[in-house]
Amino acid sequence: MRQFLLVCYILFFCITFSCKKGKLKASTASYIVVNNTLVTSSIIGLADSHKVTDIWLYVNDQFQGVYPIGSVMPILTTGPANIRMYGGIMNNGISSTRLPYTFYNPYTFTTGFEENKTYTITPTFRYKEGLIIQPDNFDSGGSYYSSTGDSNTIVVTDPAKVWSGSGGSLFLSMSDLKPTAEIRSSTAQALPLGGVDVYLEMDYKCNQEVSIGLICGGGIEIRPAIILRPSAVWNKIYISLTSVVSKQPTYAYYNVYINAFKQSGLAHPEIYLDNIRLIKP
């Protein structure tokens, strides 16, 4: 009896393993790798400033997952497939708040996939049409921002210091005698309320903390949005102003401010800013 049961068990195991093996063999996959991304816009001269950290992947309208840039993304189908990629960001620069950036259109394409083949893609994400983008690249012409601190701001063009190695970047510094550096948007403007997305994008490099927020109603209230931490290299950040704008009470007009107070013990504070973009629908 024991021998009979043993034979039955062995037969059951072999049949089960054979079925599973057959299923594994039947499973096919190809792969996509995104090592780099581009961002473009219909606005002439808008720099390709972005920090897309993740790809939100859809295959044939089915969500497949979120993959950091450089990851291998499996495509579990062969033949023609529709691919849709959303550019993912770290909201407010926080790694735990990753989401697809609401102001980028997805990158889509349809192609035939061959089993076990890897496709390297460089998606170009485009700002959605109809957005109101107020860009400030500090390269030429006027600026939307003016200095309101007791320290002067200057546009630097040293290739070793500016954002892209060419053009200009805004430089803010402070001293013990003039410890405040601040810029504000020169013109107050209406921003959408009710939870509608509003973002401030910027590139920055600094050796001390910098505060960013909104001046509400011409100075009735000042609302901080975020504190930038020191960064020895240029960093890109997407700052959500949505909750700051929609917080009660709301106002008809808002100004953006960026300011810093000299850190005690820091001999030479340095703050560099570039590609400031206030974006709203």
Please provide a written account of the structure:
This protein is mainly beta and 281 residues long. It folds into two domains: 27-126, Immunoglobulin-like (Sandwich), CATH 2.60.40; 132-280, Jelly Rolls (Sandwich), CATH 2.60.120. Helix content is 11%, strand content 44%. It has two helices and 21 strands. The strands form five sheets. Strands 11, 13, 14, 16, 19 and 21 form a six-stranded antiparallel sheet that branches. Strands 3, 4, 6, 7 and 8 form a five-stranded antiparallel sheet that branches. The chain is elongated, with a radius of gyration of 26 Å. The N and C termini lie far apart (77 Å).
Question: What is the topology?
Answer:
Elements: H1 2-26, E1 30-33, E2 38-40, E3 54-59, E4 62-68, E5 72-75, E6 79-90, E7 98-100, E8 107-113, E9 118-120, E10 124-126, E11 132-136, E12 145-147, E13 153-156, E14 169-172, E15 180-185, E16 199-206, E17 210-216, E18 221-228, E19 231-240, H2 242-246, E20 254-261, E21 271-280
Keywords:
281 residues, Immunoglobulin-like, 2 helices, Jelly Rolls, five-stranded antiparallel sheet, disordered N terminus, mainly beta
Short summary:
The protein is mostly beta strands.
Q: How many E-type strands?
A: 21
Question: In total, how many domains does the architecture comprise?
Answer: 2
Radius of gyration: 26 Å
Q: In CATH terms, what is the architecture of the largest domain?
A: Sandwich
**Spans where pLDDT lies below 50 across 5 or more residues:** 1-26
CATH topology grouping of the largest domain: Jelly Rolls
Largest β sheet strand count, sense and barrel closure: 6 strands, antiparallel
Q: Ends: how far apart?
A: 77 Å
H-E string: HEEEEEEEEEEEEEEEEEEEHEE
Range of helix content: 10-25%
Number of helices: 2
Protein structure class: mainly beta
> What is the 3D shape?
elongated
Mean pLDDT: 89
> What is the CATH top level name of the largest domain?
Mainly Beta
